Amino acid sequence: MFLLRHAELLRRLHTWTVRLLVPRRFAKAAALYQAALRDELWTPLEPHIADQLPAYFRERQRTGGHISDPSDEDLVKAFRRYGTARFASLYRAWRRVDDPIVWAAQSTTLRDDRARGWGGWESRTLTGQYLQLTGRIGRDDGARRGAKRKSRQLGPPLSSPPRLMISRPHPW
């Protein structure tokens, strides 16, 4: 989904690089991210497949919203070729953006940028722990997996009566 959300930005840039920063213990996963980049950005959909997708997505939305095996033989072959995960992410994006996301999926611009050396990919393994950033993740302090989150209340507690602001004369 990240790649789909940023593909339009990348198309508008003259040169670009997607840089993946990976903790040392997940360094082997970098190849999976590179494969996702190759599949999403550097392998455009064939136009005849992209033409069929909006109707298929509308049918999926009407009948339950899940991507499953299509009845059309061309789409079955495309699901095997491009992978069901790609169509699932396209479907999620299509529900928000509608048909332009499918039109963009057949664009060859990013593939051409890569071939010309204007677009690329690199992966860096992080050498430090960066534990000082864990508080920025957005989790409550001490939250554990499966634990309920504390509700965040905005303003004074509901049980206390609202305080009236009494204006004082300005000292000047």
Quick summary of this structure?
This protein has 172 residues and is mainly α. It has helices at 2-12, 30-41, 47-63, 73-82, 84-97, 100-105, 109-116; strands spanning 16-23, 119-126. A two-stranded parallel sheet has the order 1-2.
Structure description:
This protein has 172 residues and is mainly alpha-helical. It has one domain. Helices cover 45% and strands 9% of the residues. The chain contains 7 helices and 2 strands; from the N terminus they run H-E-H-H-H-H-H-H-E. A two-stranded parallel ribbon has the order 1-2. It is globular and about 50 Å long. The mean pLDDT is 77.
Beta percentage is: 5-15%
Structural class: mainly alpha
Please tally the helical runs, counting DSSP H or I stretches of 4 or more residues: 7
**Count of strand segments:** 2
Largest sheet: 2 strands, parallel
What is the residue-averaged pLDDT? 77
What is the H/E string? Answer: HEHHHHHHE
Q: Quick one: overall form?
A: globular
Strand order of the largest sheet: 1-2
Number of domains: 1
Spans where pLDDT lies below 50 across 5 or more residues:
none
Helix content: 40-55%
Taking the alpha carbons of the first and last residues, their distance comes to 58 Å
**What Rg, in angstroms, do the CA atoms define?**
24 Å
Compile the SSE list and pairings:
Elements: H1 2-12, E1 16-23, H2 30-41, H3 47-63, H4 73-82, H5 84-97, H6 100-105, H7 109-116, E2 119-126
Parallel strand pairs: 1-2
List keywords for this structure.
172 residues; mainly alpha; two-stranded parallel ribbon; 7 helices; 2 strands; 45% helix; globular
